[in-house]
Amino acid sequence: MNMKIIDKKIEDILNSEEINSKFISAKHNHLNIQCNILKENFFLDSYNYFPITEKYYSFKDNFSWGDKRKYEIFFSKNYLNNFNKNKNKFKSLSNIIVLGSSPANNYYRNMITFFPRVFFLKPRKINMAIHRNCSNKFRNFILAICNQMNIEVHFSFLDDGLYHFIDSQIPQFIPKSHSFKILNKLKRHRNKTKEKIYVTRQNANYRNLINEEDIVNILKK
After folding, report:
1. For the chain, which residues score pLDDT lower than 50?
2. Pairing state of beta strands 162-171 and 34-45?
3. Which of 200, 176, 177, 198 is nearest to 187 (CA)?
4. Burial classification of residue 114, based on how many CB atoms lie within 10 Å of its CB (0-12 exposed, 13-18 middle, 19 or more buried)
5. H helices present in the chain, as ranges
6. pLDDT tens for residues 194-215?
7. Where do the domains of the chain lie?
């Protein structure tokens, strides 16, 4: 008999000791922003990064980004049937922190949706999963920031497809407003002229940081 994928709301997490125990609550070092990190065995595709636990729990409140309508497919009968048919064939990875990155290497998506969650990671050594298509520039940026945080990172690269993660973690996707606060926190001192992250829009799909090297230096403070 097929189990149904059940979406657990924030209140379900708070009110259930069983579910709540699967989450780690992390706080930004300098901002009043919290991030819930799922620590569990879960299935996940490398496009939406929407985790589904082995008990068929999902958490749309915590792990949705972009157009919310795209998540309707995960609760359809066709998806469930295909999921149950193929889940034993998914590639398995263990002891991974899934940061993720845009499979299309969209720089704006990487910097706003995925990257800010780095600041909630606490382990000193991390096996971090990102998409294989992300640029060397973005990989090196992550490494530079983590180095400033005294975090040793080793990458595991994801291809397009579905994965089964064992004893792994994935930080929730935070609101854009929180991402902007985190990125704009990268400044030297408040008593100096405000140092901001400048973004140039080169075309309809991609935006690039034009003072990225400055950001790495700012993070040293």
Report:
1. 188-193, 204, 220-221
2. antiparallel
3. 198
4. buried
5. 10-15, 17-20, 60-63, 77-86, 107-109, 136-148, 176-184, 212-218
6. 555 555 555 545 555 555 555 5
7. 6-175
